[in-house]
Write a structure and sequence with these properties.
The protein is of the alpha/beta class. The chain has helices at residues 44-61, 74-80, 89-102, 119-135, and strands at 3-12, 17-27, 30-42, 66-71, 107-112. Strands 3-2-1-4-5 form a 5-stranded mixed beta sheet, sandwiched between helices. Helix 1 packs parallel to helix 3 (89-102). The longest helix is centred in the middle third of the chain and has 18 residues, at 44-61.
């Protein structure tokens, strides 16, 4: 699978609070993988970055060469486009991890989409939190 479209989202119940990530990976418009993981206590921004990291790692496993990422997080989008600087130390660590993972791809683009265009990833992130809270 040389080219993938990826939808990512992070959810935090409270900020910080119990958090989850949702990732939908598509190839030629078909869903090839869904990820819904609980990541413990985190801020919403940490959850957004963690979703991206999960997506990038999975894309490398799938041997993708080109990826298009779609997020409804304006902060993540603007930081990766270098419009905003990354000031928060926790986010800087995740940002560096993202930069490192991106070296594994020939082409990477990130696109900001409205929340309503990211419903599936949002649902997966929220589901991860709900399922974890049921178990606690």
């Amino acid at each position: 699978m040389s080219e993938l479209e990826i939808y990512i989202d992070g959810a935090s119940k409270g900020n910080p609070g119990p958090s989850g990530v949702g990732v939908v990976i598509c190839h030629n418009g078909e869903i090839v993988k869904k990820i819904s993981n609980y990541i413990g206590e985190a801020t919403n921004n940490v959850a957004e970055y963690t979703a991206l990291i999960h997506a990038l790692q999975e894309s490398l496993i799938l041997r993708a060469r080109k990826i298009k990422v779609y997020t409804d997080s304006e902060l993540l989008y603007r930081q990766l486009k270098k419009v905003y600087r990354v000031k928060n130390e926790n986010i800087q660590i995740l940002y560096k991890q993202v930069e490192h993972l991106l070296t594994g791809f020939e082409l990477f683009s990130i696109n900001h989409v409205p929340r309503e265009n990211n419903k599936e990833a949002d649902k997966l992130a929220t589901l991860a939190v709900k399922n974890a809270l049921k178990k606690l």
